[in-house]
Write a structure and sequence with these properties.
four-stranded antiparallel β-sheet; single chain; mainly beta; three-stranded antiparallel β-sheet
Length: about 80
Amino acid sequence: IEVKDGAAVATIEWTSPNYDYMIVDDVKYLQTNTEGNSEFEIPVLVFDVEMPVIANTVAMSKPHEIEYTILFHSDSMKVVE
C-alpha cells in the first residue's frame, strides 16, 4: 500500500496470470502488467473492515467475475521513507 495524491492505493498480485480486470466500488481497474501473475493497483476504501471486490478470470471456459473480500489491517502498516 502506498499513498498517491492523498489516497491509499494497494498493489494486488494474484497467484495466477488469468485475471484481466478488477472492480472496486463499481469502478473497473485493468491489469498493470503484461507478463507473469496478474497485478492491479486499486484504491483502499477502508481499513480494518472487509472490502468487497470483484475479479474477472479468463481461466474457465468463459470469462467469469468472482466476488472476493480484502481486509487491510491498519495495525500492520509501517511508514517507509
